[in-house]
Amino acid sequence: MLCNASDIVTDFLMASDKKTMIPKIFTNLSMAMLCLIGMVISLFTQTSLAQDARWVAKTMPVHDIELASYDLGRIEKVNVSVGQSVTAGTELVVLDSDSTFAGQQIATIQRQIAKTESENDIELRYANKSRDVLVKNVERSRLANLQYPQSIPDIEIEQQRLEKEQAELSAELAQQKIAINQNNLNLRVEEESLAKILHARRTLRAPIDGIVVELKKDAGESVAAGETVLRIVNLDRLRLVSRLEQNAISRIAVGDSVRFFPQRDTVKDLVVIGKITFISPELNPEEEVVEIWAEFDNHELGLLIGEKGELAILD
Predict the structure, then answer these.
(1) pLDDT value of position 46
(2) CA pair distance 11, 81, nearest whole angstrom
(3) Is 55 helix (H, G, I), strand (E, B) or coil?
């Protein structure tokens, strides 16, 4: 090998006539030096190309929401217009909600009734009092017969014992009724929560801060469950989408910094710094490229969605 200096030295040491090998050694060493210089130049050139390489990229929204209706209904009110800025939780569109409002009111009343019933322990207290009285009657009859045999007939004592057992069973039944009433209250609470959810779903609220960029329905129109009503995008943080050659992917990783040079005639020398957030595991077999994403803070830059430019990887 021309670039292997160790082979040249080995050949010299093993040669029997070392004098005749000296010119050859100088020649081979010169060629080895030239080969080494070529390798250094090639490596420097590849590094420079990697540093200077740029790829076409464009901006895309990180948060792009198509807000759809949960349920079938008729739109009663639209509170926003295209181009309007909204904050998360803002009431945007209201569907007809008379039936769900009535359902919520009914559920609330039923929950209040169930709460009153669950707190009612009158039957249990009465049953316990009756049982205590009858227990004492049975005990008095027993003591009376001990002192005066047969003063109280056996049939009467049995009747007292039966009444005592009935009072004990009544107390158990009242306790079970309280437990049932408590479970019924829990059920009514859940039904009320469900009714509130169903009513709240008739109002579409902004899930994020952003700008309304599309409005597909207007007041008075019907909307199906799952049908898109409007679209909101957030411009505070944008995504750069680019496609790199397969051999360039091995030199980057998620978290690496990138520079983006927007193609703007009005603003010169604008450079945006971002970080790689995604490297696709899929290779486009036709173009042999891999898609990557990078994100950057656009709060103060004011770049638009769809702007094109060049992307460079920072070392």
Answers:
(1) 45
(2) 85
(3) strand
Residue the block writes with tokens 């049995």:
158
Helix (H, G, I), strand (E, B) or coil at 90: coil
Report whether 218 contacts 78 (CB < 8 A): yes
Please name the helix (run of DSSP H) or strand (run of DSSP E) that holds residue 157, with its range, or none.
Answer: helix 154-200
Res 41: pLDDT: 47
Confidence (pLDDT) at 26: 53
Q: Of how many residues is the chain composed?
A: 315
The 10s digit of each residue's pLDDT in 264-305 is 766 667 899 999 999 999 999 998 999 999 999 999 888 999
Assess contact for 242 and 56: CB atoms under 8 A.
yes
Name residues of the chain where pLDDT drops below 70: 1-52, 265-268
| Residue 213: both structure tokens together | 């960029």
Asked whether 198 and 28 are in contact (CB, 8 A), the reply is: no
How many other CB atoms sit within 10 Å of the CB of residue 253?
9
Residue 222 CB neighbours (<10 A): 13
- The answer to whether residues 239 and 62 touch, using CB atoms and an 8 Å cutoff, is yes
How many whole angstroms separate alpha carbon 80 and alpha carbon 59?
A: 26
How far, in Å, CA of 206 to CA of 204, rounded? 7
| Dihedral pair phi/psi, residue 259, rounded to 5° | -115, 140
User: Helix, strand or coil for residue 221?
Assistant: coil
* Dihedral angle of Cα 92, 95, 99, 105, to the nearest 10 degrees: 10
As a whole number of angstroms, the distance between CA 2 and CA 36 comes to 9
CA gap 245, 147 in Å, rounded: 111
The structure's pTM equals 0.66
